[in-house]
Amino acid sequence: MVSSAIAPAWLEKPADLNALDARLWPAVRRSSAGEMLIGGVPVSSLVEQFGSPLYVVDLDVLSARALMVKDALTSGVARDHRSVHVFYASKALLTSDVVRTVAAHGLGFDVSTRGEMEWVLASGVEASRLEFQGNNKSDAELRRALTVGVGAVVVDSEWEAKRLAAISAELNVHQRVMIRVNSGVHAGTHDYLATAREDQKFGIARGDLDAVIDIIASAEHLEFVGLHSHIGSQIVSPDGFVEAATRLLELYAHYSAHHPLDTLNLGGGFAIPYTPVDPDSNLEAIATALGELLDQWDAKGVRVPQISFEPGRIIAGPAGVTVYSVGTTKSVLVGEGDDAATRLYVSVDGGMSDNLRPALYGANYTVRLANRHSSAPAQLVRVVGKHCESGDIVVHDDYLPSDVVPGDTVVVAQTGAYCHSLSSNYNAVGRPALVVVEGGEARVSLKAESVDDVLSRDAGLAFGSASSEEA
To answer: Can you list the domains of the chain with their CATH numbers?
Structure first.
């Protein structure tokens, strides 16, 4: 199909705007009347019960994704002498329902703050299944982690190694410690998503490892057990993983001669498709390539008993969608002469406060009309939010039926990861509810925030005043 003159080159006009690409919409299908069913629940019922905008997560899809990822990594990498451990990256999406669903498949949890740690623990997970990450863990956070007995602390700086040594001695607690290594491998993603380059905040440069290891090794209560690497996000090619793993294996071979190392953590960053032209995750190929690399090092006499991974987006992303109500539409003529084209701005009741990724990373998403079937021609649209920012964009470029009007409902795909986690109260807007569906039933997992909820953090406001009552 021919695209609009102002559409990006990658965006093709869909042949059928009512069709749903199963890669992008695993939790969604249409009823015979054309309405979207999310996890079997009509979108109109969800909006009526829980409001709009609304995050919706299908726990059945989430469960299937967690199991698929665990099986793929285990199948590709594990051997009789080598186990695979998968830690869900809690930053992607964190609720008690998500934790329990993922934990049921035996996954551990990668946490990077006291809040994430407490949330996972409160959801019923044993502390030994947690790895505590982060580049600036406070004394209080480290003390809490050691007190509850997290499985490992991943050290990110020399300062942290010193803090951890002192706190472990103070508490008289033995703690397994890994070191996050800045491998220098760049996975080729957006600069803000690439987290293993030399000039960035994460990890310890290879030239500085000896000093940090000496601190850990000389601490009576610390045990240096492994190396950690994370090279970025939205990675499809095995090449970056293989190169980073090779560099870690070289270090592992060197340091294991003097320390009881047993683990390499190769991080996460596996991709998901956000638009029809995006590639699939390629997870099986990545796992196979890493397994073959480790086999080669086995032959050299370097055996690693445990390989760990930290997937987040690939598990949570496809399980979630965001539901919006259309408030206004506005046609804008862009360009001149033969290059002129019309873009329809579709304003919805959410925006950058519930999905910051388009503004933060320039991320692309896919949107479809949800409340009805339409046979109208395709119209290039930009879905925008209600915030006082020109960059408040939910979907930069996609096609919707030209008869989309105020009162319609639209749904954005693949929003299970990082949308709620990055949400805010910008412009004093309350964060939407997060609803989970399971077995065709819907329930609230995270409550929506009302205006009063937002104002309640202001200690200078007296609720119940005349002005509040009038409002």
So the answer is: 28-58+318-455 (2.40.37.10), 60-317 (3.20.20.10)
